[in-house]
Write a structure and sequence with these properties.
853 residues; alpha+beta; Immunoglobulin-like; 5 domains; 14-stranded mixed beta sheet; eleven-stranded mixed beta sheet; 13 helices
């Protein structure tokens, strides 16, 4: 620190030599025979070289000569006070201006050796010199050089120097008790000074106010005024007691900031010594740019964090302690801090008003996102009882904000898997804006979470929740909403090999809504997983909440940011040897048809469905509606209500279908429907296609569009009726006409008919049929009176037959009298079920006919 006014000349930037280098120089004294002018010029030349050597010495030691303010209570007091003493020879006003501008003092060492009951005992070393080149006016410079050459030396008696702050009401911030000192005041001469000084703080309240303003960033500049009453003499001449005053201004880079530091190691553990709570061991490297030597006693501080609002009172979290620390000039410090937290206060973990976060959530969230977080250190307690009371009073309640760099936790999720998965399709009664209007998932989720190596304390997860965005190939396709707490448990896995420690969390997820936001991306995932059996990699960005048990107790942490790549294995068996997809493995079958209702153009049917679920997942379906198609033409819709699907075989699931080709597809649909029914009753292999549409799942048109890309074709249910004993031909009873009895004399026929329905009676309203033997017509039946076909096996009324008397078919019938033969038949049939009517054709092959008289 420099106590004189700044000079614009280059010489003002020189510094004095170190004490060691200066002691090695020869004496600068001269004899009286040496010519005065020559002596002076030679001395100035030699001293200039000395000054340059001193500057190089200090530069080699890495000391920046910029003005610093290392300590208001120490270095500032000493430097100002010593300068006042050096200027004390200004008993005459004639050389006052010269002394103020030419005097230069450079401190080289400051050590605070011990604390006393009233202050600090300090040792200060530095170099004092008069530099005439810094004086602006030549007249003042010449007068000063002559006066100081005559006076040669000035000596001061012991004195007190006081330092005030004018902007704080001339608050006294400290007093330095300085012993007597003698200096050479001739131009260019350097005097090394070594002093033991007693420092006493002034008003503790004023010093604390200054410290708070500095910590809060309100000190743009600092005005300091020093005053001392110094008894002086020069040689045998006493100059009396002089009142010395000096004012200085510190601003910009002259006002120090908190030293730079780096946290090099953190270890979080259980508290030791049988204490409850958690402990922390932290190693900190602190940059030291000051020429200060001091032994700092052991100290304990409070650790605090911010509340919900910046204006809220800080929340006490725990305490931290450091051991006794020895500080050496310009040597960086390695400090070990030991902390302890017994339990977390309620205000730290309680949600803030109008927010879903607590102060703890905000602190950890910022840290884990890699953002700077801030804790606060409040001074101080001194474990050593010999520490004087003034030190405790001075530092009492001074709170220092300590920012620390956050840590980007990276990929915390190492592995992710699902088991016992159950899907819930949306409830038809749900409000479209509620979570129940989305598909929901219940499952057991197993998550392997990587832990930071510094976390070495027991940690048990009891509940978990999350709000997660899910991405595939960097495209967001959905949100998984776990806003309700879900049960969970955890197991710590210690580090092994190159893997660090991890926490295996198992959570029971109950009805978590899954909102599909991009159906195209989700469709791609379904294809990769269902059709091709591939493992997909999903990117998850989530705000996670966990309720944990720790040595500090049980508490919840909300909205912790988490990102990870989650591999999801195929949810089914994928492609098999036959190359088919999962949908081809459904083996969908339908039976037990019954008619529930009819209209002139429609039938409402009920059937029992059997199929195989090839996936490992189950599902609850409150409602689903699927189009029924034939030849890509919509014939009607099938609906299922409140069914539960399990992995593997699912049997007797009730499905309701409305068959209405005309309403859905007009005349084309009516014609295709009639053709399908004709083939069906004739025993042909018929099938229809089940395909989803936008209205398949309530409130989820995008999911319906996705499922529509996977139509499933299934065979129509077979005509079934009770088999007769000894009937081993599986196809024999699969025809609408099971057999017939032909009466030649009465020209009538009776048919045994198999209805496809179990509970519904259908009616034949019109019949125009021809019987064939091989390809030869045998007879014709035209019957316009309606007759009933009840469920199961029944017989028709006697139907009149018009024989083809001159045909080979009729001859074959006569030859089979008393026996039987196989006949073919083709008929146009009018059918009625309730209000519904339809015209179909029927073609029968190999109908067993008994021939009777």
């Amino acid at each position: 620190m420099q106590s004189t006014a700044p000079s614009s000349r280059p010489g003002s930037q020189r510094s004095g030599r170190s004490s060691r280098s200066r002691r090695s120089q020869p004496s600068s004294r001269t004899t009286e025979e040496t010519p005065l002018i020559a002596r002076e010029e030679r001395r100035e030349h030699e001293e200039t070289d000395d000054v340059d050597s001193q500057a190089e010495s200090l530069k080699g030691r890495g000391w920046s000569l910029r003005k610093r303010w290392p300590s208001i209570l120490a270095l500032l007091l000493l430097c100002c006070s010593v300068v006042f003493v050096m200027l004390g020879f200004l008993a005459t006003e004639g050389i006052e201006e010269y002394a103020v501008q030419a005097a230069d003092f450079k401190p080289t060492k400051l050590s605070l050796s011990s604390l006393t009951k009233t202050g600090v005992k300090a040792h200060v070393e530095g170099d004092f010199r008069m530099d005439a080149s810094k004086v602006k006016k030549s007249s003042v410079r010449n007068l000063g050089r002559f006066g100081t050459w005559v006076a040669r030396e000035v000596e001061s008696a012991p004195a007190d120097a006081e330092v005030y702050l004018p902007e704080y009401g001339d608050a006294l911030i400290g007093t330095a008790r300085i012993p007597g000192v003698k200096v050479n005041i001739r131009n260019g001469h350097t005097t090394h000074i070594s002093l033991d000084v007693d420092l006493e703080p002034g008003s503790l309240n004023d010093i604390r106010n200054i410290a708070h303003d500095w910590l809060d960033g309100r000190l743009a500049e600092v005005h300091v005024k020093g005053k001392a009453y110094v008894p002086l003499k020069s040689g045998l001449f006493r100059l009396g007691t002089q009142t010395l005053e000096q004012a200085m201004v510190f601003k910009g880079a002259d006002i120090p900031t908190l030293p730079a530091y780096n946290i090099t190691r953190v270890n979080l553990r259980e508290a030791r010594g049988g204490n409850k709570g958690m402990g922390a061991d932290v190693s900190v490297s602190v940059k030291n740019d000051f020429p200060v030597e001091i032994t700092v006693p052991a100290v304990a501080v409070d650790m605090l964090v911010g509340g919900c609002q910046p204006s809220d009172q800080l929340i006490l979290v725990g305490t931290a302690e450091t051991a006794e620390l020895h500080v050496e000039p310009f040597i960086d410090l390695n400090v070990t801090v030991t902390g302890r937290v017994e339990e977390l206060p309620d205000e730290l973990t309680t949600q803030c008003p109008n927010s879903a976060k607590s102060p703890l959530d905000s602190l950890l969230g910022s840290y884990m996102q890699g953002e700077d977080a801030t804790v606060y250190i409040r001074c101080c307690e001194f474990p050593d009882p010999s520490t004087p009371g003034w030190a405790k009073d001075l530092l009492q309640d001074i709170t220092v904000p300590i920012p620390f760099a956050g840590r980007d936790m990276g990929n915390l999720i190492r592995n992710f898997s699902l088991s016992d998965v159950h899907f819930f399709l949306p409830d038809t009664t749900a409000d479209p804006e509620t979570p129940e209007s989305n598909p929901q998932i219940s499952a057991v989720i197993l998550v392997d979470i990587g832990l930071p190596e510094e976390m070495n304390f027991p940690l048990a997860v009891k509940h978990i929740k999350a709000d997660a965005d899910v991405y595939y190939h960097k495209k967001k396709f959905g949100k998984l909403n776990l806003r309700k707490w879900q049960k969970a448990n955890s197991t710590r896995i210690e580090a092994h090999g190159h893997e660090g420690p991890s926490l295996l969390v198992q959570a029971d997820i109950k009805k978590a809504p899954l909102e599909i936001t991009d159906g195209a991306v989700f469709s791609k995932i379904v294809q990769d997983m269902f059709l091709w059996g591939e493992t997909v990699l999903l990117d998850v960005k989530a705000a996670v909440g966990v309720e944990v048990n720790t040595p500090m107790g049980q508490f919840a942490i909300r909205d912790i940011p988490a990102e990870g790549v989650v591999p999801v294995k195929p949810i089914g068996h994928g492609t098999g040897d036959d190359g088919g997809s999962i949908f081809s493995k459904l083996n969908l079958r339908m039976g037990n048809l019954s008619i529930l209702n009819t209209s002139p153009s429609s039938l409402t049917l009920q059937a029992h469905v059997n199929f195989t679920n090839p996936t490992n997942y189950s599902a609850t379906v409150p409602y689903v509606n699927i189009n029924v198609l034939v030849n890509s033409t919509v014939m009607g819709q099938a609906t299922a209500d409140h069914i539960v699907v399990h992995p593997g075989n699912n049997t007797n699931l009730v499905v309701t279908a409305i068959w209405d080709p005309f309403t859905n597809s007009g005349q084309r649909g009516k014609a295709i429907g009639s053709e399908l029914l004709s083939q069906y009753v004739s025993g042909f292999n018929t099938s229809f296609t089940m395909q989803a549409h936008e209205g398949t799942i309530p409130h989820q048109p995008s999911l319906g569009r996705l499922l529509s890309k996977f139509p499933v074709t299934i065979p129509a249910p077979r005509l079934s009726g009770p088999k007769q004993p000894g009937d081993n031909d599986p196809d024999e009873k699969d025809h609408f006409i099971q057999d017939a009895t032909m009466h030649i004399l009465s020209s009538t026929a009776i048919f045994t008919l198999a209805s496809p329905f179990r509970t519904t009676t259908m009616y034949v309203t019109h019949l125009n049929a021809t019987a064939y033997y091989e390809t030869h017509p045998a007879g014709k039946i035209i019957y316009d009176l309606p007759f009933a076909i009840p469920p199961g096996i029944s017989t028709s009324p006697r139907l009149p037959v018009d024989w083809s008397l001159d045909s080979l078919g009729y001859e074959a019938i006569k030859k089979a009298l008393g026996g039987s033969l196989k006949l073919n038949a083709f008929a146009e049939v009018g059918v009625r079920i309730g209000s519904w009517r339809e015209q179909i054709w029927y073609k029968g092959q190999g109908i067993g006919a008994k021939i009777r008289l």
